[in-house]
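Final report, closing paragraph on structural work. Over the funding period we assembled a curated collection of sequence-structure pairs, and we close with a single example.
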Amino acid sequence: MSETTTAFAPALTARLRHPRTWIWAAGTALLLALPFYLDRFWLQAGLFAMAAAIGAIGLNLLTGATGQLSMGHAFFLAVGAYGYCVLAGESGTENGHSLSGLGLPSGLAAVLAVLLAGAAGGLFSPIAGRLRGAYLGIATLALIFIGQHVLFNASSLTGGYNGRSVPPLSLFGLTFDDTEVVVAAVPFQSSEKLWYAALAALLVSGLFARGVLRGRPGRALNAIRDHRIAAGVMGVPVARYRAGVFVLSSMYAGLAGVLLALVFQRTVPEYFGMVLSLEYLAMIVIGGLGTVAGAVVGAAFVSLLPQLLTHYSDSLPLVAAPGTGGLAPGEASRYLYGAAVVAAVLFLPGGLTRPTKNSGEKK
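Its predicted structure, as stored:
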């Protein structure tokens, strides 16, 4: 015991002296304090970024770490979002549609919605285990068209074109709605409450993905990405790993979908289309393929950019509020992160989080 303590003490001292430890501690303290100081707009922007980061981490496990191109990530976000609404919602009438709901406890519904997204990924996993590259991308593209058709036409489950309202999350007696709860003389409503739930979900998701990437599964996934045949010769079950990481990526997307639904407070089918899948691919390319930090940075960039442009449209040149005849913030943001994708591919192949020396030179 004493030898263990003696060996542990220098390591702990070295870690405490490392600047990164203090940076992480300061960042954590800042994130925990933000709900006490920011208004609703900034909190919702942060919530969108955290939800996008969770989904991007899942896609980075599939595309960045394993080299499997997926164009259907938005489908699994929709499964998580609408799965939560159906599982937690009550049957009734809304906007002229008779909606079905199971009325389960919202905490249980959130967990089941994530598992439902994983089950949807599991149904597709035999295909994902055998296809790769552009072939898998084209196959997953079909999920978007199937999902859009179901979302628009299964009105008893989805509410049709107008969507359906999202039941608030309730955990341990605390309901994450706009009912005010005063904490340190600051009124906490839905955004403030959801901030800590989203932060916890992002932390757990990031740590789990980091453990996967740094452990034996991560080495196997990277081997499959770099040289599939050699990985098979070394005994890596290629099809099984591909199928498994596809299911895991789907569960991450389902969790992101649940969180997005709770932030939006309403699910709309049009949101879960092709553009959303392309945005997630942009996130991992800009941030960095195969890393958790890259997924988080890329998600923050892509998800926050249109909101910031909308918020400051009156002060920015060439950008005008939607419907005023100028360049809409949404369009401007797509131009900007489209240019960022091109710049990352040409000059930062490792993304913003893994810059490489002389990356602009041909090799």
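The longest strand covers residues 92-94. The radius of gyration is 22 Å. We thank the funder for supporting this effort.
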